[in-house]
Amino acid sequence: MDMSRRQVVFGMLGTQLDSGEGPGRWEKWRPTVSMGMHEDFLPDRVELLLDERRYAKLARVVCADLQQVAPELDVRRHDTYLADPWEFEGVYSTLHDFLASYPFQPEEEDYYVHITTGTHVAQICWFLLTESRHFPGRLLQTSPPRKQDGAAGSYAIIDLDLSRYDHIAQRFAQQQLQDRDLLKSGIATRNAAFNAMIAQIETVATRSRAPMLLMGPTGAGKSQLAKRVFELKKLKHQLPGRFVEVNCATLRGDGAMSTLFGHTKGAYTGASSDRAGLLRSAHQGLLFLDEIGELGLDEQAMLLRALEEKRFLPVGSDREVESEFQLIAGTNRDLQQSVLEGRFREDLLARLNLWTYHLPGLAQRREDIEPNIEFELQRWSQQQHAQVRFNVEARTRYLAFATSAEAAWRGNFRDLGASIMRLATLANAGRIQTEGVDDEIARLRQQWRGGQAPSALEALLGPAVDELDRFDRVQLEEVVRVCAHAKSLSAAGRELFAVSRTQRASTNDADRLRKYLAKFGLDWEQVRRPAGP
């Protein structure tokens, strides 16, 4: 502290801790009086807040004793009335208004607020006002000596600028990284845009209970991310309730209203008992509505009212029920387009659109495929209590295919998870071999072609087709197609080299084509196909 500047302490009269009468009071530690007894920290001024109507006598004794131990100390009393010192809003408002009118001079004075006296509510309010910089100073905490002998005791100055506390700052930073790691399921993702999005979701999730909208293709991980947000908030004691999930695409007709909002007994044929509904089940928890764009307009209207007013009518009831829940919605639709088409309410979209995040598909995060392969292997091993690993060659071949432009990953992480599960299940002695990888790649190709047969080139080369550059593959596909329909090697050569052959004095199209095919280990007999009837 800079002792060339005036040191000013704000504090509240301790109606219990500061009390004492007669000579015996000096045998007791009194926190306000102790502020004038520290040789290494002696304030120039004390601003003492108290209720003059009730505690004027005590204040006179305390102020006199304070000036007796520190004659040069300037003590100023402020009549501060608190109707109920345990009522948070009233205490905060009173202290806030007092500080707003106080003539602070931070260029000349250092300020401290003595938090040892006052009710716990007052201490919390002082803390909040200091943290928010409504009070431009630091916290001062005094403690009694080990023996009640009237000694000064000890004091500690607490600066709420956490950047000054390296260990605390490091712990906060480490906790943030752990929170983000939780949101990513522990996967060390490498996509910069995805990591930046997760960092913001972590901040929003811990500071806000506003709805969140997750957009992205099926299988991009919307449901997993919603569960992780819930787990994060649960760890921080922000949501004591449950995680409730429903795919809105499965809700149809009258059952949609009942599923979401509940019903009363006899509300319709088959309603033999009361039903709470998912919104009530999610009370004080998190409700994830996947594919929210599939909800009907009536359900959308009810949902909007439940979001804004925290109450709604179950089907068949004339009495409203309440539910306080946080909503995360997921969709693979363009909801703006759905609004224009009249299939989604504009006011509901406006309510959902405060925090909107677009989850990229796996094909847009190819650098994250490798760590996700490891994650899926570990998950399978934990579930089956058996360790499975790729051998080096098999892993290299699978990863090359998985990260290539050919790998569509139309089902995104669902496709990848199912693929690794098949490989792990069929592995012998805990090792995934190249034969298994080749079979799986063929299966994925067929799956993404919609069950169609492999191309002529894929049928000819098999797994070796993955070893071709994309340029060579496109060119060779066309050569094989022409050869398959040509009557002879020469005829195929004439068609393939129709332009360049006119610029040659001597042409041998058949030999030229034969040499081209040989580069890829093919010959005419392999690529030709007998003409059909």
Keywords:
elongated, alpha/beta, 44% helix, six-stranded mixed β-sheet, five-stranded parallel β-sheet
Radius of gyration: 37 Å
Enumerate the spans where pLDDT stays under 50 for 5 or more consecutive residues.
none
Cα shape: elongated
Taking the alpha carbons of the first and last residues, their distance comes to 100 Å
Question: What is the number of strand segments?
Answer: 15
Q: What features would you describe in this structure?
A:
There is one protein chain. This protein has 533 residues and is α/β, with parallel strands linked by helices. 44% of the residues lie in helices and 13% in strands. The chain contains 21 helices and 15 strands. The chain has a 6-stranded mixed sheet, with helices on both faces. A 5-stranded parallel sheet has the order 8-9-12-7-13. A two-stranded antiparallel ribbon has the order 10-11. Helix 13 (369-384) crosses helix 15 (413-426), helix 18 (470-485) packs across helix 19 and helix 19 (489-496) packs across helix 20. The model has no long low-confidence stretch (mean pLDDT 87).
